[in-house]
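Re: Re: ligand-bound prediction request (bumping)

Still looking for help on this. To restate: I need the protein modeled with phenylalanine bound, output as structure tokens. Inputs repeated here so nobody has to scroll up.
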Amino acid sequence: MVKSVTNNREHWQSKCGFILASAGSAVGLGNFWRFSYLAGMNGGAAFVLVYLASVLLIGIPLMIAEFLIGKLTGLSIVSAFRKISGNRKLWVGLGLIGIVASFVTLGYYAVIGGWVMNYLGQSLSGNLPTDSNTAVFDFKLLSTTPALQIIWYTLFSLVVAGIVSRGVRAGIEKYNRILMLMFLALLAIMAVYALTLSGARDALSFLFKFDLSKITPMVTLLAVGHTFFSLSLGAGIMITYGSYLPKKITLPFASVVISVIDSLVALLAGIVIFSIVFSFGLLPDSGAGIAFVTLPPLFAAMPGGAWLAAIFFFMLAAVAITSAVSILEVVATYLMDEWGVNRKISTWGSAIAIYCFGLIWTANDIELVDRIAGGYLVVLGALAVSLLIGWTVPLNSLAKILQTRINHPMLRGFYLLNRYLIPVALIALLLGGTL
Ligand code: PHE
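Reply:
Sorry for the wait, this slipped through. Here it is.
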């Protein structure tokens, strides 16, 4: 039987702070850059429908599972796996997947964060490309000039490490609160504005006019894979954030709220991006460059476009920072929990190591590493989490921590999902190999 622990770890100041921080982790470049290009290239509404179903059936139960592991042990991923499994090597090794996934993901995520900073800088100084040829050229120049990327990449990494080094309350919670509230307000304004554009109707039907025949195995695999990326699952993040939870909190409710915020943001971001794209009569399938190549010249052609562009890239920068903070926190907490290193040293030590590793992606193909880390590694990590919950934690411990009775149908469902359905789905996903 695993006992819940109270160590002298920092805790969130408020539930709202915890929800905003977790939503801050989930909402990120994934919602803008990844969701829109995946939906754009994979039949729009078909992708959206499978994605939403997978959030409900796999995403939410796994998020509950991650929070539960963190709350139950009060520890980050590797130490938590060690504790729950009774120090079994296999499980400790599986926990390490989360650390590797976080390490690798942050390396390239911060490079894209740097691109966002670059475009924010350009939009504030009125230097965004005004025609599509220049936009293609500018993006190529940026993504193939390491020196240019390194400036912005360094700035982005410093901001992220600076926040994490301040700790849970004074750093992570405080800055998530500020950045997320600003972000949500700006997104609401942008979405209302987007709905007034001539392309809004097409954008809505592209995202919501479901055509079941467009749901292919490939679309399904991509949509399920993206669920993990978007909800920050499989990299130990929600375990770490769950380890700072106070006693009284309903995990299923919190997980639903966070997932709803994340999905709503993805849909609203989709409405903003595709309304603009369709207003100019363009096709939605331009791929990974949609936010950086397709949009800038369109902004330039819109009334008040300089402002819109600045707001858009500020929003992207805000959510990229809050997500990157959560990824760095996983690696930093690993050093704190496993090696007893203090926060300042563990944060800057892991930030520097990840920074050096990430430099590779200023000169190499990001889509490839995104497939490996953002695809395979997080799915593997998520598989480890569901197996740990489904096969090593006794049902009565689960009931206790979820504050429910042992024969509650929801608890049974949650248990069976983690024990059978989710592992089978994830193994199929890994074997399907098209992440
Ligand atoms: N969920 C975040 C996003 O959507 C980023 C992230 C990805 C965080 C993978 C952790 C793991 O951008």
